[in-house]
Design a protein that fits this description.
single chain, about 220 residues, alpha/beta, eight-stranded mixed sheet, 14 strands, binds cytidine-5'-triphosphate, binds calcium ion
């Protein structure tokens, strides 16, 4: 069903540099995005995987990886591919903020305390959502600790997503660093809860749920 479809996937963290040796980042490993890329390629889709820094590799003729560092670089790479992609999957843990200034030389310590001013990063999913066409399908992820369903539904609307894969940090074995994940899939008219599974099985569940919802796959 995914054969011949063009898919854009974001994965991994972004690193926002403070100086040539330091950055602000997060614990995302990229496993979920890479698992989705592999499953989709095995199903015959042509995958553009835009990934922040990760230790993972993926060698498949149908997967083209663009490695990026910052949210701005990730956005630029996605903007090139997004108009031609049928399916967008935003699995990256994009840093919400970046340092206002990046020093060109290593910042030296002094006796005074040190304050970093942060400015907001581009919201890749929301910005691309503004130009999403009827025939395109967008999937986002949300990692929440409180008011999970309400927040996930908010992201669905705000970012013009067709589906949000919700991870709750309350579930042991879910989220960053684990090989397993426990997800709830939130769509405009439904909520589906899944059991704790490994990330390859979770990727299959996500693809099945996309198939059930995406009108162009029903034809
Ligand atoms: N996302 C994105 N660009 C950003 C931030 C988030 O593309 N700058 C995407 C993520 O890849 C994910 C979705 O938006 O698919 C939700 O990310 P999340 O961090 O949960 O939501 P935020 O809108 O950043 O809100 P908050 O972190 O305050 O919950
Ligand atoms: Ca965020």
């Amino acid at each position: 069903m995914f054969s011949g479809k063009k898919v854009l996937i974001t994965a991994g963290p972004t690193y926002e540099p403070l100086d040539p040796v330091r950055f602000i980042g997060n614990h995302s490993t990229g496993k979920m995005g890479f698992a989705l890329a592999r499953c989709l390629a095995e199903a015959g889709a042509e995958v553009s995987l835009v990934s922040g820094p990760t230790a993972l590799t993926l060698d498949h003729a149908l997967v083209h990886i663009t490695p990026v560092m910052t949210a701005d670089e990730m956005f630029a790479a996605c903007a090139k591919v997004a108009p031609e992609a049928d399916l967008w999957i935003f699995a990256a843990a994009v840093a919400d903020y970046k340092p206002k200034d990046t020093a060109t030389s290593k910042i030296k310590k002094s006796d005074a305390s040190f304050t970093i001013e942060l400015v907001k990063n581009v919201d890749i999913a929301a910005t691309l959502g503004q130009q999403k066409r009827e025939d395109q399908f967008a999937v986002g992820f949300a990692l929440e600790t409180d008011q999970e369903l309400e927040n996930a539904r908010g992201k669905l609307l705000k970012k013009k997503l067709d589906m949000v894969v919700l991870n709750s940090l309350r579930d042991p074995g879910a989220g960053f660093k684990h090989d397993t994940n426990k997800i709830t899939i939130v769509k405009a008219a439904s909520v589906e809860e899944y059991a704790l599974k490994n990330k390859d099985e979770v990727a299959q569940d996500i693809l099945e749920s996309i198939k059930a919802e995406w009108a162009c796959l029903q034809k």
